[in-house]
Design goal:
The complex is a heterotrimer of chains A (749), B (276) and C (162). Chain A is 28% helix and 24% strand. Chain A is α+β, with helices and mostly antiparallel strands and 749 residues long. Chain B is globular, with a radius of gyration of 19 Å. Classes of the chains: A alpha+beta (749), B alpha+beta (276), C alpha+beta (162).
Amino acid sequence: MMHAAFVRSPHAHARILSVRKPRDFAAQVYAAEDLTGVARMRSTAKLPGFKPSDWPILAAGKVRHAGEPIAMAIGSTPAEAEDIAGLVEVDFEALRPVVTMADALKKTPPFVHDDWGDNILVDIKLEGGDLAGAKANAVHIVERTFRMNRMHPLALEGRACLAHYDSRLDELVVHVAHQLPVPLQIGLSQVLGISQRRLRVIVPDVGASFGLKTYVESETVAVAWAAMKLRRPVRWIQDRYESLVCDANCRDYQCKIIGYADANGRVLGLECDVVVDSGAYSPWPWPAGIEGGLALGNIQGCYDIRALRGRAINVVSNKPAGQPFRGVARPLSCIGHEIVMDGIAEMAGIDPVEVRLRNFVQPEQMPYVSITKKTLDSGDYAAALKRAAELIDLPAVRARQKTHEPDGRLIGVGFASFYEQTAYGTGPFGYSAWGIELVPGMEPAIARLTGDGELILEVGSHSHGQGHETVFAQVAHEVLGIDPRKVAVRFGDTSSSPAGTGTYTSRSMVTTGGAIAEACRLLTKPLAVVGAHLLQCNESDVQIRDGRVHGPQGSVEFSEIGRAWYHHPEDLPANMDATGLTATAGHKAHDPGVFAYSAHAAVVAVDPEIGSVEVLDYAIVADCGTRVNPLLVEGQIIGGFSNGLGNALYEENTYDEFGQPTATTLADYTVPTAASMPDVKLDFMETPSPFSMFGIKGVGENGAIGPPASIMNAVNDALRPLGAAVFETPVSARRVRDAIARARAAGGS
Amino acid sequence: MKPASLSYARPATLSDAVNNLQSLADQCRVIAGGQSLGPMLNLRLAQPKHLVDISQLTDLRGASVEDGILAIGACVTHAEIEDRKIPDVTLGLMPFVARGIAYRAVRNRGTIGGSLAHADPAADWLTTTIAMDASLRLVGPAGSREIKVADFVTAAMETAIEDGEVIVQVLVPCFSPKAAWGHAKYAKKLGDFAQSMCVAVVDPGRKVARVVLGRRSELPSLLRGVSELVASKGYDTTSETLRSAIDEDLKAAQADRGDQTMHRAIVERAIRDLAA
Amino acid sequence: MKTLNIRINGQAVSQAVDDRLSLADFVRDQCLLTGTHIGCEHGVCGACTLLMDGKPIRSCITLAVAADGAEIRTVEGYQGDDLMVAIRKAFNLRHALQCGFCTSGMLATAYDVLSRIPDLDRDRIRAELGGNLCRCTGYLPIIQAIEDVHAQRSASAKPKAS
């Protein structure tokens, strides 16, 4: 097995003048022009004005972010590959980089993509309702500008791939840490020019992802190409430094939001201007314009707001390519609507919980089509918020705020109510609205009963910690009564898994779960036919439950059914379908999706001298419809909360004025630890969706969406007596100190 | 990343180690627990051709008290200090500081000598040993010498160590029974290097009053005005005099304006801790 | 290159190693014990934590040659160990792992903490786990699992009423 290491750009923006391979190892170094037969990787979207760009596998001509790969070195050990990479000499002509959003919004060079004439990837506008009327009737107008700084999904396992050419099958086999086996297979096939039937993608055990491992990566293409060329297995394992430099790629936003409310605090309309820094390139298949669109599409939250003007400008910059991360733009929307609510509460002298209650979409209004065309299907947002306030004992916290803390810290309370659109479909309200090249489609499942009466489920989604192996077995149990311990759930190999699209946007329980339920239902037919035959009764007289087929007199186990089909099909009745004990089914998701929701409540203590924030108490009331496995749901929410906590208080990829990343090790990039996690009070409501099988809703991103908003609101509640506020994530100690210093200088208390 | 090519040696005796260092000169680095050097090797920030492992040398392990000085072997680990496997002559200050260093897995290998030789200004031992007015014993080709820690570390990541020299002992003056110490630290998360740290040692029996501020990138500062005040007037932290003394000393130490309130708070808290 | 003589999970192992090879890479690539994981290679994330001479250490920043003569226990090496059986069962019941990448490091740390610290409470557990990062679980189920095992051991250590 050989190992790959990459020569990476030290510059954020530069022309490549020459690449000089080390004389003794020239045959082991590959630059862009050596990758023969590799097509360009172009990410497109049909959004009006979207500018497509090519994402180079190895940079040629110029580099567009620090860390961009320029050459690949192959060695017999990873260390040797790095030694060889270290000997490659590259001459650059440094160019002025586009680092900040202000840089990117200028109409003048430098341009990240020379042929664009600017640095605007796409400019999305959204309008609806009578905003002029809302403005005219507004009594309270709240205007806020906030920023979310770039962060990293930081899955604990980095990216990795191993490719080899199987000469017996004439097939390229690529093992890769990923969430989407089939889209990756399709993308690799297009770029490498190998037909899909000759390309097998195997996604084994993956050490988490959160959206990071969802695109076609340059390194995977290069390694796969090398495996074909060398006819030897080639492996690449990313290291953490590399990842913090090259994958630093999510949540880079700025937003100005204006809320127009009447005297009672009812929000009549919103205006919202978002800028998203999408980095240098647009990943395949998820183009970078998605974030801006999603930010606008969810900006009104759970509230009955009837007028909106929104604009999202996605810019490019000399930073790594933007990639969706758990929550995907919804944390931005959530901060937007939640700081407006708190702003109105303050201005109008209304309690922050009360102002939200006055604005929520009510259950009797559902299904409710929002101004952004989201169909809120079921739920009681008010009940969830009230319960969250109860869990943190809001009256006691308010009383405490009126007293003086012995340690001088300031206490604050903040809320975040939001929905999460999950499991949406292919149609105009779903993925195809983004106009992307590979619209995720229907989700399949194959159910096969074995000769000894146990069940194998083959699915197209991929489990990297979500516990699919358990919940999907539960679905089979629900339909067939089979013991879940007798069910094997298999996925992640394009040569045996049915062609689903993978795991993303909180859809697997609904879509794959739905497909499994249908496949198991289809299996009841051959089970009934064989069972009736063995029981010597009419097919119409049998029932399938408890993993057995029951007749008027007696029952048979699934193992007997299996034996009958696999060992003695000659004895079976003539009407037995030759397909036997295998069933394939698919699930078409309800196009607008199904809407989970949550209410978060945060209680914080802010140290006004150091600026540090401690979360004293946190409550989450979540409703994801029917919970198939409550323990797994809890795991998703608490885990998501820890990502949201990191987003709120700790995590930031920082850059200097030359576009150089400065948080390049875990010593600088701070991630929540067990010592930073508060206990979380978690409670559930279960309002089934009318639009999904079993009433299930997705839940994977729920926990991550709320904390930046709730914690920011809580910190600002604590700082209010000082006249200070922070509207930037992470809400670091330094930002809190600076805000307090500014307020003091401006004559605050 | 993987380290650049290197050759590893584990000499059997201290004099073998010193000889290796002298003959291999600047191609060579000492490695003890490897908790500071290991990451640097992996990031290729350090690319020594030779590593000389001194962590197992019995001369550098263990500790003994003589003439009012605790001599700690340079390769005693933070965990051994935390667990009080060596005598504690500091009324609990050293075990307390040890427990706050990074994480147990790091403390099981990281050494007090290694930490001081690495000279990261934010390291807990640096501020603490300066507050305790500790010294180091070094052994090299020219023999043995003693130097105050405060004089040994000359700049961030730089020391006065000569070619071929190895730190063999950290020498800590024993606290007298009526001594007191105070400690305060702010780090972004538990176990991180401090953004701000203060260790205060007041020992009337030895006429010692030292209040030292540790920061991320600058060397620790002995706050002279505050130290004098604390020695003479006691620990009334509500007094304006103390606050002004802190601000004066912070100005002298060229503390960043945006960090002013943080450092002041940490120094005040360390002094309050002292009084408690 | 050197010949490394080391004991891994109770077995004597003698292999040629590159001087610069980390203990983590040795255990994974040469001994094929891939339960130990590498998350950062700078000693912060804790995924590589294993026991050396009975103490948890970071195998990613430890050279294999520096471990010559040592006794190494990886996550594969606890067959029949009652404490580890109890820890694994508690992790299972509390859903204290999702993707599993941090888990071998968490188990080593949990094993050490439960063996070494008699008066464990929630806050102490939190502090002792501070050197093991997890991105999936949010830590609370891991803390709970360790609390469970501690409570079980404390209960069974109490003298039975006569």
